[in-house]
Structures are given as structure tokens and as C-alpha cells.
């Protein structure tokens, strides 16, 4: 028995191929029939050959659908439940899981703290850009949604970008009434800025160079800063009469580019954040940094080492939080904000296409083509 899945073929190439249907491998597993699976900026790191991902990997860590088959040890989920899975795979029992750090589970990926679906080095879990997915430790990992099809695109955002953006704000230490600057108006950055609004931030600056992405700031009264027109920190300080912001979020990561939009500079956002934030402020860094990057342009970055103004960081008494988002720590509450009609994160969704259109969608998403800023695949 086979199904269709998005398979990584090599640099800048994915294909939709027939692969074996997933089966129950452990009593705690369920099989979910996928109704929506989103493409993510994190998939691009693999697609652009900036990771050790090998051909044959099945992509897709943002997954939702209907529970179709239950392992014998599943006690909470029922057949027919509508569910969304955190991109993290977690056991629910280890020290990190029991202290809400589900992104750093020590039982799901040998020799490593943290597992995910369809991602290089994150364990043996196939991605969900496919017709079905196997969900391990399913009672713990699957979040049950109201039945039906209402809010499908909003709930889809609970798999990764909405909780990840929210996590960025938490890492920064944001409090109501504070100001915040978010680097990157990709899905994660927009969700961080939107979360800041939900959390009661006052001024919210969003920095990017893609006009279509910056335009989405209007949805939550964010202040767009186009860094192709000049230094982002200068622009923010000028608008604020020289006053720094309370908090910063890096939703760009290690493939950050300079003003020309072409030249990568791995430390540019980190350096700008240290300049932009007030003394005793905080930096939240959900943007991805990697321990080795063979494709990097300088020798240090290849080893995951970067020039960082630690002296200034110390002098200002700053704090910093990093890492993968513990999606499960936030997804239940964020779901209920959607149900209550308070949050509507699907405003970032650009389009929905069938699974067979995935190769074309990857090409356009990678080129940041207008209309392809957050794509949901509908198998
Ligand atoms: N921590 C986590 O759990 C987690 C989860 C999901 C994604 N991520 C990471 O978050 C980052 C963002 O994800 P995304 O899906 O929004 O990616 P994306 O590629 O869609 O967006 C990144 C944006 O950053 C902009 N950018 C590039 N250089 C910049 C600079 N110098 N200043 C300001 N903006 C700049 C780009 O124009 C782009 O719009 C990625 O590194 C991704 O891997 C982390
Ligand atoms: Zn993602
Ligand atoms: Zn665990």
C-alpha cells in the first residue's frame, strides 16, 4: 500500500513520489490522515543545501489532520479526532518534557535533545507533506481541535509558526506596555510581532526588505522598517527620538542578508539587536543557528562560530534566550484564542495548493515570489 509524499531529491529539488503508507510501530502511535501541511522557512535551509539533509528525506513538520488508526496503548485520542501536531516529537516523560521543554526531549532522537518530523538530524520521523503521517507518543503530542473544518488555516499555524513567534516574545522577556523590534517578516517574524500585540506590547517594529511581507504589519498595527532603504537600527532610533526598544526578536537566523539582499552575513541581526535594545532589555532568538554550516562564506561560520559584541552585551546587562520552540507549552492556549475569535493567525497564509503542486510551490517560496509567503499543501 502506498501514498504520495514530498521527497527531497537534492539541492533546490523536491518531487512528489509514491512511498509506503506509514504503519503503527509502537502501541503509543497513531496514524493521521493529513488535511493540511504547511511549507516552512526551516524547510528552505534543507532545500537550499545548507544542512546535511540527504536525498530521500520526506519533508513536512507542520501537520494537521484526522486520526485514522490507533495503537493499542492510545487512551485519550479517538478515531476521527481532528488534531494538529507540534513540529516537535516528544516523549512526555523525560526531565525536559516534564518541565515544558518539549523541544529538547531526550528520548526521541538518540544522542540529541529534540526531535521533529521530516527534518535532518531530528530523528527517524517522516514528514507530513504527504497523505498520512505516523505520530509517536500520540496522546502527548497531538492537540485535539474542535471537529469540522472551521479555522483550518488558523489551527494549521499552531504546528509551528504561531507558537514559535510567541516563544520568541517569551524568550525576549516581553511585558505589557513594552516596545519590541522583530527582525524578519517571514511567517515566524510576523507571528512574533502578532503575538507581541496579543501580549500587550506598545510599539512593534518589524524589519525586512520584502514589501509584501512588511505590508502585513497593518493587520496588527505594526511599524514596518524596510532595511533595503537604510540601516534598520538607525531608522528605529530616529523614529523613537533616540530611545532604544525594550525587547528584540531575531526571526531570521543564520542565513541573514545585508542591505543588498544578496550577501549573507551570519551575525548581522544579532549585532543590530544589541545596538537596538535598551540596557537590561532582552533578546529572543527563535531564528535558527547551526553548529556547523559547510556552505557558510567564512571559516568561523562554517564551525558555527560568529563574531558577537559580547562586551556591549555585558555592559548593557542584557539577557538572551534561544532555541527551538516548545510548541506544546503554548499551543493549547493559542488554540483557545483562535476558538474565542481573538487570534486569527491565518492572515499570513498566502495560498493553498494540492500536494502535486509542491515542487512549484517550493521554487516560488524559495524565490520569495509574491503570493507564496506561507503555503499550505492540501493532500
Ligand atoms: N526556533 C524554532 O523553533 C523555529 C521554528 C520555525 C522556524 N525557525 C527559524 O526561524 C527563521 C524564520 O523562519 P521563517 O519561516 O519566517 O523564514 P523565512 O525565510 O520565510 O523568513 C525570513 C525573513 O528574514 C528576512 N531577512 C533576511 N535577512 C534579514 C535581515 N538582515 N534583517 C531583517 N530581515 C531579514 C527575509 O527577507 C525573510 O523575509 C528561520 O531561521 C527558521 O529556520 C525556528
Ligand atoms: Zn516550520
Ligand atoms: Zn521527552
TrEMBL record:
The Alcohol dehydrogenase-like C-terminal domain, residue ranges: 187-258
Cofactors (names): Zn(2+)
Gene3D superfamilies: Medium-chain alcohol dehydrogenases, catalytic domain, NAD(P)-binding Rossmann-like Domain
The Alcohol dehydrogenase-like N-terminal domain, residue ranges: 27-137
Sorted UniProt keywords: Metal-binding, NAD, Oxidoreductase, Zinc
Family in the record: Belongs to the zinc-containing alcohol dehydrogenase family.
Protein name: GroES-like protein
Organism: Pseudomicrostroma glucosiphilum
Amino acid at each position: 500500500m502506498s501514498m504520495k509524499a514530498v521527497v527531497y531529491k537534492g539541492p533546490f529539488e523536491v518531487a512528489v513520489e509514491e512511498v509506503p503508507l506509514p504503519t503503527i510501530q509502537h502501541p503509543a502511535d497513531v496514524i493521521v490522515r493529513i488535511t493540511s501541511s504547511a511549507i516552512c522557512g526551516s524547510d528552505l535551509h534543507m532545500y537550499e543545501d545548507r544542512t546535511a539533509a540527504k536525498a530521500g528525506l520526506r519533508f513536512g513538520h507542520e501537520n494537521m489532520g484526522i486520526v485514522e488508526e490507533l495503537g493499542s496503548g492510545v487512551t485519550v485520542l479517538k478515531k476521527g479526532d481532528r488534531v494538529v501536531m507540534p513540529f516537535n516529537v516528544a516523549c512526555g516523560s523525560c526531565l525536559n518534557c516534564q518541565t515544558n521543554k518539549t523541544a529538547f526531549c531526550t528520548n526521541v532522537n538518540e544522542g540529541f535533545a529534540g526531535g521533529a518530523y521530516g527534518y535532518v538530524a531530528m530523528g527517524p520521523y517522516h514528514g507530513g507533506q504527504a497523505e498520512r503521517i505516523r505520530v509517536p507518543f500520540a496522546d502527548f503530542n497531538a492537540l485535539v481541535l474542535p471537529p469540522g473544518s472551521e479555522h483550518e488555516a488558523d489551527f494549521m499555524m499552531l504546528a509551528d509558526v504561531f507558537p514559535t513567534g510567541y516563544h520568541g516574545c517569551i524568550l525576549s522577556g516581553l511585558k505589557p506596555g513594552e516596545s519590541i523590534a522583530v527582525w524578519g517578516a517571514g511567517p515566524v517574524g510576523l507571528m512574533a510581532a502578532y503575538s507581541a500585540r496579543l501580549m500587550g506590547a506598545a510599539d512593534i517594529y518589524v524589519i525586512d526588505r520584502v514589501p509584501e511581507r512588511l505590508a502585513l504589519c497593518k493587520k496588527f498595527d505594526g511599524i514596518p522598517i524596510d532595511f533595503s532603504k537604510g540601516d534598520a537600527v538607525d531608522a528605529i532610533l530616529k523614529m523613537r527620538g533616540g530611545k532604544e526598544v525594550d525587547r528584540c526578536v531575531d526571526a531570521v537566523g543564520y542565513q541573514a542578508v545585508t542591505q543588498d539582499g544578496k550577501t549573507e552575513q551570519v551575525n548581522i541581526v544579532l549585532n543590530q539587536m544589541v545596538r537596538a535594545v535598551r540596557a537590561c532589555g532582552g533578546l529572543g532568538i527563535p531564528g535558527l543557528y547551526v553548529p556547523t554550516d559547510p556552505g557558510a562564506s567564512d571559516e568561523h561560520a562554517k564551525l558555527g562560530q560568529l563574531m558577537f559584541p559580547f562586551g556591549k552585551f555585558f555592559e548593557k546587562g542584557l539577557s538572551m534566550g534561544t532555541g527551538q520552540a516548545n510548541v506544546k507549552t503554548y499551543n493549547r492556549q493559542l488554540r483557545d484564542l483562535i476558538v474565542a475569535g481573538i487570534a486569527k493567525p491565518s492572515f499570513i497564509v498566502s495560498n493553498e495548493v494540492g500536494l502535486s503542486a509542491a515542487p512549484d510551490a517550493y521554487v516560488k517560496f524559495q524565490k520569495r515570489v509574491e503570493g507564496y509567503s506561507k503555503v499550505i499543501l492540501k493532500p
